[in-house]
Structure formats: C-alpha cells, structure tokens
C-alpha cells in the first residue's frame, strides 16, 4: 500500500473508540492527532439502536470531537436506501429512538412492502420470527441494516441481528439487502462523502471481517485494532490479512508517524 497517499480515514466507533459507555484510552488524543495531520474523517458504525441525532449526542458526551455530518450509521444508510426505493410501506424492527429517523416512511405491520431489521435486543421470539417469515413468503422484501454476528458490551459478547437476518433468509429462501457494513454500498457512501479517491483512504476497526475485510474488498487499506470484539482465535480463522495491526486506537499516532 502506498501510505504516502493517505488523505482520509474511516474509523469504526463501538469497539474502536469506545465500548459501551467507556472511552478506550487514547481515543480522544488520536482523533486530535489525525485532525492535526489535516486528514478528512468519517466515523462508521453498524449500531442501529440510535437515531443520528442521538448517536451524535452520545459521541459528544464521551468527549469525542466528531461532527454530526461525519457520522455514517447503518441505521441512517437504511433511510437513504428507502428514499431511493420510493418510500415503500415498512415494518420496522428497530428500537424506538432509531425509528425516529424513519418517520417519513409509511408504516405497515400487516402487509409491508419492506421489512427493516435492526437491533431490538430481547424482543426476538418465535412468534415474531414466524410473523416476519409469513410476510416474506407473501412478497415482502427484507432489508438488514447490517449482518453482524456478534458485538461486545460491558456484559460481554452478545448475539447480534445478523443471526436473525440469516435465519429469515434461510427460511424464506430470500436474500436480504444489507445496507450497513459489510455491504459495498456502505463503504461507497463513506468514500463519496469524503470526496477522496479510495486509494488515499484507510480504515481503522476492530472487526476483521465487517471492517477490514469488507473495506479491503472495495480497495481500501485496513488497520485492525485489538480491542472491542477482536479475538485472536476468531481472526486466525478468516482469510483476511490487515495491512496493519495495532494494540488499540492509542497506537495509531505512532503508526502514522512511520508513514511518509
């Protein structure tokens, strides 16, 4: 990789800059360093429990110097997708706050044109899955805001929404449209907002597949941080090799100092 060309950085949020309500050591200092270098920044997240407004308030409350226009979440990518699709009737599997960004779309839980699946925590049960299954085989389209297998909280590793998206795809013999990571379109949206060639952009993230592997598939170099959901045994099972690996976000300034 020609590191001399780096002009922009895509940075994951949860697991990279913070875990739950705990800021990872060095996060704020690293962002300040990247800004001093004059790099353009975008912050990516597959979190779908918050509206864009709430996500912005959260990162600011943690002391992170991030502008609202620099945030791209899987939940907001879903809004952009539905607008482009002509504002279809939707059944939303979202937390109340995240659903605020979807108020412009007609709601229909009985005969939806599109089923939007995000994070709803413990609300998943057999009756809900079966109801969604019946609507899918009746013609509804499935939109998954992301397809993460798991995520890390202060209570430990948790099953993520991707498991339920996969189950619905399997049962209904349909394929979901995925709008968050690792979907190529998600990274293209981020690159377009930077207005920088992808060869001059690098991503920082804790997920070897949805952050690093997916970005590399789009021609974007990757830095894996060994925090958040990182697990050495899981990383060794996939065929993705990051361009760089560091212990945490705190190590990023030292790495960048080695770049021309």
Strands of the widest sheet, in order across it, are: 5-4-1-12-13-14
Distance between the termini: 12 Å
Highest CATH level, the class of the largest domain? Alpha Beta
Shape descriptor reads globular
Structure explained in plain terms:
It is built from ten helices and 14 strands. It is α/β, with parallel strands linked by helices and 260 residues long. The chain has two domains: 3-46 and 182-256, HAD superfamily/HAD-like (Rossmann fold, 3-Layer(aba) Sandwich), CATH 3.40.50.1000; 86-178, 3-Layer(aba) Sandwich (Rossmann fold). Helix 4 (96-99) links the parallel strand 6 and strand 7 (114-117). The two termini are 12 Å apart.
Quickly list its features.
2 domains, 10 helices, 260 residues, Rossmann fold, globular, six-stranded parallel β-sheet, four-stranded parallel β-sheet, alpha/beta
Characterize this entry briefly.
This protein has 260 residues and is of the alpha/beta class.
Secondary structure layout plus pairing:
Blueprint: E1 8-12, E2 18-19, E3 22-23, H1 27-36, E4 40-45, H2 52-61, E5 71-73, H3 74-84, E6 90-93, H4 96-99, E7 114-117, H5 126-137, E8 141-144, E9 150-153, E10 156-159, H6 162-172, E11 177-178, H7 184-194, E12 201-205, H8 208-217, E13 221-225, H9 232-235, E14 244-246, H10 252-256
Parallel strand pairs: 1-4, 1-12, 4-5, 6-7, 7-8, 8-11, 12-13, 13-14
Antiparallel strand pairs: 2-3, 9-10
Helix pairs in contact: 5-6
